[in-house]
Amino acid sequence: MKKFIKPIILVIIYFIMQGVAGAIIGGIALVTNPDATNAIQIGDANALTKIIPASWLAFSVIVSGILTVLIAWAMKLINWKTVFRFDRQQASSAWLPIIAAIAGIFAIIVLEEQLQLTDILQNEFADMMHSALGVLMICVVGPIVEELCFREAIMGSLIRKGTRPWVAILFSAVIFGLIHANPVQIVGAGLMGIIFGIIYYKSGNIVLTTLLHILNNSFATISALVFGKDATMSDLIGGSTVAIVSGIICTIFCIAMLIRYLTHTK
After folding, report:
1. Going by C-beta distance under 8 Å and a sequence separation of 6 or more, which residues neighbour residue 151?
2. Which listed residue, 19, 60, 167, 256, has the most CB atoms within 10 A of its CB?
3. Cα separations (Å) of 207 from 143, 210, 211, 230, 264?
4. What is the per-residue pLDDT across 172-204, written as a single tens digit (0 to 9) for each?
5. How far apart are CA 199 and CA 191, in angstroms?
Protein backbone atom coordinates (compact mmCIF):
# COMPACT_ATOMS: atom_id res chain seq x y z
CA MET A 1 0.00 0.00 0.00
CA LYS A 2 2.96 2.31 0.62
CA LYS A 3 3.62 2.24 -3.11
CA PHE A 4 0.42 4.21 -3.70
CA ILE A 5 1.09 6.99 -1.18
CA LYS A 6 3.16 9.26 -3.42
CA PRO A 7 0.95 8.78 -6.52
CA ILE A 8 -2.15 9.59 -4.47
CA ILE A 9 -0.43 12.66 -3.00
CA LEU A 10 0.43 13.78 -6.55
CA VAL A 11 -3.22 13.45 -7.59
CA ILE A 12 -4.24 15.61 -4.62
CA ILE A 13 -1.58 18.15 -5.56
CA TYR A 14 -2.86 18.13 -9.14
CA PHE A 15 -6.37 18.97 -7.92
CA ILE A 16 -5.08 21.66 -5.56
CA MET A 17 -2.93 23.31 -8.24
CA GLN A 18 -5.88 23.44 -10.64
CA GLY A 19 -8.12 24.87 -7.93
CA VAL A 20 -5.60 27.49 -6.82
CA ALA A 21 -5.02 28.57 -10.43
CA GLY A 22 -8.77 28.93 -10.99
CA ALA A 23 -9.17 30.88 -7.75
CA ILE A 24 -6.39 33.31 -8.70
CA ILE A 25 -7.87 33.92 -12.14
CA GLY A 26 -11.32 34.38 -10.60
CA GLY A 27 -9.87 36.82 -8.07
CA ILE A 28 -8.24 38.86 -10.81
CA ALA A 29 -11.54 38.94 -12.68
CA LEU A 30 -13.31 40.22 -9.57
CA VAL A 31 -10.81 43.02 -9.15
CA THR A 32 -10.66 44.08 -12.79
CA ASN A 33 -14.29 43.60 -13.82
CA PRO A 34 -17.25 44.77 -11.66
CA ASP A 35 -19.60 42.55 -13.69
CA ALA A 36 -17.87 39.52 -12.18
CA THR A 37 -19.01 40.54 -8.71
CA ASN A 38 -22.58 40.89 -9.95
CA ALA A 39 -22.40 37.45 -11.56
CA ILE A 40 -21.32 35.87 -8.27
CA GLN A 41 -23.97 37.70 -6.28
CA ILE A 42 -26.78 36.40 -8.50
CA GLY A 43 -25.16 32.96 -8.85
CA ASP A 44 -24.78 33.13 -12.63
CA ALA A 45 -21.87 30.77 -13.36
CA ASN A 46 -22.29 31.11 -17.13
CA ALA A 47 -21.95 34.87 -16.93
CA LEU A 48 -18.83 34.52 -14.81
CA THR A 49 -17.12 32.20 -17.33
CA LYS A 50 -17.89 34.66 -20.11
CA ILE A 51 -16.31 37.48 -18.13
CA ILE A 52 -13.05 35.57 -17.51
CA PRO A 53 -11.04 35.53 -20.78
CA ALA A 54 -10.36 32.07 -22.19
CA SER A 55 -6.68 32.94 -22.54
CA TRP A 56 -6.50 33.59 -18.79
CA LEU A 57 -7.98 30.18 -18.03
CA ALA A 58 -5.62 28.50 -20.49
CA PHE A 59 -2.60 30.28 -19.00
CA SER A 60 -3.59 29.24 -15.48
CA VAL A 61 -3.96 25.59 -16.53
CA ILE A 62 -0.57 25.65 -18.30
CA VAL A 63 1.22 27.15 -15.29
CA SER A 64 -0.47 24.82 -12.79
CA GLY A 65 0.33 21.82 -15.00
CA ILE A 66 4.01 22.72 -15.30
CA LEU A 67 4.25 23.28 -11.54
CA THR A 68 2.64 19.87 -10.94
CA VAL A 69 5.25 18.20 -13.17
CA LEU A 70 8.03 19.97 -11.27
CA ILE A 71 6.57 18.74 -7.99
CA ALA A 72 6.38 15.18 -9.39
CA TRP A 73 10.04 15.50 -10.37
CA ALA A 74 10.93 16.74 -6.87
CA MET A 75 9.06 13.72 -5.46
CA LYS A 76 11.28 11.49 -7.65
CA LEU A 77 8.28 10.07 -9.51
CA ILE A 78 9.69 10.84 -12.97
CA ASN A 79 12.61 8.96 -14.47
CA TRP A 80 14.01 11.51 -16.92
CA LYS A 81 16.57 8.98 -18.23
CA THR A 82 13.90 6.84 -19.86
CA VAL A 83 10.77 8.98 -20.11
CA PHE A 84 11.58 10.22 -23.63
CA ARG A 85 13.88 7.41 -24.78
CA PHE A 86 12.80 6.08 -28.17
CA ASP A 87 15.11 3.86 -30.22
CA ARG A 88 15.01 2.30 -33.69
CA GLN A 89 13.62 -0.96 -32.40
CA GLN A 90 10.61 0.82 -30.90
CA ALA A 91 10.19 2.92 -34.03
CA SER A 92 10.05 -0.17 -36.23
CA SER A 93 7.02 -1.52 -34.36
CA ALA A 94 5.39 1.83 -33.58
CA TRP A 95 2.75 1.35 -36.28
CA LEU A 96 1.05 -1.32 -34.15
CA PRO A 97 0.20 0.82 -31.10
CA ILE A 98 -0.51 3.86 -33.27
CA ILE A 99 -3.12 2.03 -35.35
CA ALA A 100 -4.53 0.34 -32.25
CA ALA A 101 -4.89 3.65 -30.41
CA ILE A 102 -6.49 5.45 -33.36
CA ALA A 103 -9.05 2.66 -33.71
CA GLY A 104 -9.63 2.68 -29.96
CA ILE A 105 -10.06 6.46 -29.81
CA PHE A 106 -12.64 6.29 -32.61
CA ALA A 107 -14.57 3.61 -30.72
CA ILE A 108 -14.41 5.66 -27.51
CA ILE A 109 -15.79 8.74 -29.27
CA VAL A 110 -18.71 6.69 -30.58
CA LEU A 111 -19.34 5.21 -27.11
CA GLU A 112 -19.34 8.66 -25.49
CA GLU A 113 -21.94 9.85 -27.99
CA GLN A 114 -24.18 6.83 -27.44
CA LEU A 115 -24.04 7.24 -23.65
CA GLN A 116 -25.17 10.88 -24.05
CA LEU A 117 -23.39 12.00 -20.90
CA THR A 118 -23.47 15.63 -19.83
CA ASP A 119 -20.65 17.89 -20.99
CA ILE A 120 -20.40 20.55 -18.28
CA LEU A 121 -17.25 22.09 -19.77
CA GLN A 122 -18.37 22.34 -23.39
CA ASN A 123 -18.66 26.14 -23.43
CA GLU A 124 -15.32 26.66 -21.66
CA PHE A 125 -13.47 24.44 -24.12
CA ALA A 126 -15.26 26.06 -27.06
CA ASP A 127 -14.04 29.46 -25.88
CA MET A 128 -10.48 28.19 -25.41
CA MET A 129 -10.45 26.77 -28.94
CA HIS A 130 -10.76 30.32 -30.27
CA SER A 131 -7.70 31.43 -28.29
CA ALA A 132 -4.14 30.72 -29.42
CA LEU A 133 -3.10 30.07 -25.83
CA GLY A 134 -6.15 27.85 -25.38
CA VAL A 135 -5.26 25.73 -28.42
CA LEU A 136 -1.68 25.45 -27.14
CA MET A 137 -2.99 24.25 -23.78
CA ILE A 138 -5.50 21.75 -25.20
CA CYS A 139 -3.39 20.32 -28.02
CA VAL A 140 0.20 20.45 -26.75
CA VAL A 141 0.89 21.41 -23.13
CA GLY A 142 -2.08 19.53 -21.68
CA PRO A 143 -1.19 16.17 -23.30
CA ILE A 144 2.49 16.45 -22.33
CA VAL A 145 1.68 17.34 -18.71
CA GLU A 146 -0.94 14.60 -18.39
CA GLU A 147 1.33 11.93 -19.86
CA LEU A 148 4.16 12.95 -17.54
CA CYS A 149 1.83 12.89 -14.52
CA PHE A 150 -0.48 9.95 -15.16
CA ARG A 151 1.61 7.58 -17.24
CA GLU A 152 5.17 8.32 -16.07
CA ALA A 153 4.81 9.68 -12.53
CA ILE A 154 1.84 7.61 -11.35
CA MET A 155 1.81 4.42 -13.41
CA GLY A 156 5.55 4.32 -14.04
CA SER A 157 6.50 4.84 -10.40
CA LEU A 158 4.13 2.04 -9.33
CA ILE A 159 5.63 -0.41 -11.82
CA ARG A 160 9.18 0.56 -10.85
CA LYS A 161 8.28 -0.24 -7.23
CA GLY A 162 7.05 -3.72 -8.14
CA THR A 163 3.32 -3.18 -8.60
CA ARG A 164 1.71 -5.58 -11.05
CA PRO A 165 1.45 -3.88 -14.47
CA TRP A 166 -2.30 -4.43 -14.87
CA VAL A 167 -2.92 -2.92 -11.40
CA ALA A 168 -0.83 0.14 -12.28
CA ILE A 169 -2.56 0.49 -15.66
CA LEU A 170 -6.07 0.32 -14.19
CA PHE A 171 -5.21 2.59 -11.25
CA SER A 172 -3.73 5.31 -13.45
CA ALA A 173 -6.58 4.98 -15.99
CA VAL A 174 -9.29 5.38 -13.33
CA ILE A 175 -7.52 8.40 -11.84
CA PHE A 176 -7.01 9.82 -15.33
CA GLY A 177 -10.74 9.55 -16.00
CA LEU A 178 -11.85 10.99 -12.66
CA ILE A 179 -9.38 13.89 -12.77
CA HIS A 180 -11.25 15.37 -15.74
CA ALA A 181 -14.30 15.88 -13.48
CA ASN A 182 -16.60 16.05 -16.50
CA PRO A 183 -19.20 13.26 -16.99
CA VAL A 184 -18.68 12.98 -20.75
CA GLN A 185 -14.89 12.77 -20.32
CA ILE A 186 -14.67 10.43 -17.33
CA VAL A 187 -15.57 7.28 -19.28
CA GLY A 188 -13.66 8.23 -22.41
CA ALA A 189 -10.52 9.39 -20.61
CA GLY A 190 -10.58 6.27 -18.42
CA LEU A 191 -10.72 3.93 -21.42
CA MET A 192 -8.12 5.97 -23.24
CA GLY A 193 -5.98 5.72 -20.11
CA ILE A 194 -6.07 1.92 -20.41
CA ILE A 195 -4.94 2.03 -24.06
CA PHE A 196 -2.20 4.56 -23.32
CA GLY A 197 -1.21 2.59 -20.21
CA ILE A 198 -0.67 -0.58 -22.22
CA ILE A 199 1.43 1.31 -24.78
CA TYR A 200 3.44 3.01 -22.05
CA TYR A 201 4.06 -0.30 -20.25
CA LYS A 202 5.36 -1.95 -23.41
CA SER A 203 7.44 0.97 -24.68
CA GLY A 204 8.72 2.21 -21.31
CA ASN A 205 8.38 5.86 -22.31
CA ILE A 206 5.73 8.47 -23.10
CA VAL A 207 6.80 9.30 -26.66
CA LEU A 208 4.03 7.38 -28.42
CA THR A 209 1.35 8.11 -25.83
CA THR A 210 2.12 11.83 -25.95
CA LEU A 211 1.95 11.92 -29.74
CA LEU A 212 -1.34 10.02 -29.69
CA HIS A 213 -2.71 12.27 -26.95
CA ILE A 214 -1.79 15.35 -28.99
CA LEU A 215 -3.40 13.77 -32.06
CA ASN A 216 -6.63 13.05 -30.17
CA ASN A 217 -6.94 16.54 -28.70
CA SER A 218 -6.00 18.19 -31.99
CA PHE A 219 -8.64 16.19 -33.87
CA ALA A 220 -11.29 17.20 -31.33
CA THR A 221 -10.26 20.85 -31.60
CA ILE A 222 -10.21 20.92 -35.40
CA SER A 223 -13.56 19.11 -35.59
CA ALA A 224 -15.16 21.61 -33.21
CA LEU A 225 -13.75 24.59 -35.12
CA VAL A 226 -14.71 23.29 -38.56
CA PHE A 227 -18.04 21.57 -37.88
CA GLY A 228 -19.15 23.29 -34.66
CA LYS A 229 -19.00 22.21 -31.02
CA ASP A 230 -22.25 20.20 -31.32
CA ALA A 231 -21.07 18.08 -34.27
CA THR A 232 -20.92 14.34 -33.57
CA MET A 233 -19.04 11.46 -35.15
CA SER A 234 -22.40 10.03 -36.26
CA ASP A 235 -23.08 13.24 -38.18
CA LEU A 236 -19.69 13.10 -39.85
CA ILE A 237 -19.75 9.47 -41.04
CA GLY A 238 -23.38 8.98 -42.02
CA GLY A 239 -25.59 8.25 -39.04
CA SER A 240 -25.81 6.48 -35.70
CA THR A 241 -26.01 2.94 -37.11
CA VAL A 242 -22.88 3.37 -39.20
CA ALA A 243 -21.08 4.87 -36.20
CA ILE A 244 -22.05 2.02 -33.87
CA VAL A 245 -21.03 -0.71 -36.33
CA SER A 246 -17.77 1.10 -37.06
CA GLY A 247 -17.17 1.51 -33.33
CA ILE A 248 -17.60 -2.23 -32.70
CA ILE A 249 -15.23 -3.10 -35.55
CA CYS A 250 -12.66 -0.59 -34.30
CA THR A 251 -12.92 -1.98 -30.75
CA ILE A 252 -12.16 -5.51 -31.95
CA PHE A 253 -9.35 -4.24 -34.16
CA CYS A 254 -7.86 -2.17 -31.32
CA ILE A 255 -7.82 -5.14 -28.94
CA ALA A 256 -6.27 -7.40 -31.59
CA MET A 257 -3.52 -4.89 -32.40
CA LEU A 258 -2.72 -4.29 -28.72
CA ILE A 259 -2.45 -8.05 -28.10
CA ARG A 260 -0.13 -8.34 -31.09
CA TYR A 261 1.92 -5.40 -29.79
CA LEU A 262 2.25 -7.01 -26.35
CA THR A 263 3.11 -10.49 -27.58
CA HIS A 264 5.08 -9.94 -30.80
CA THR A 265 7.40 -7.04 -29.98
CA LYS A 266 10.44 -7.02 -27.73
Report:
1. 172, 196, 197, 200, 206, 209
2. 60
3. 11, 5, 6, 31, 20
4. 999 999 998 788 889 999 999 999 999 999 999
5. 13
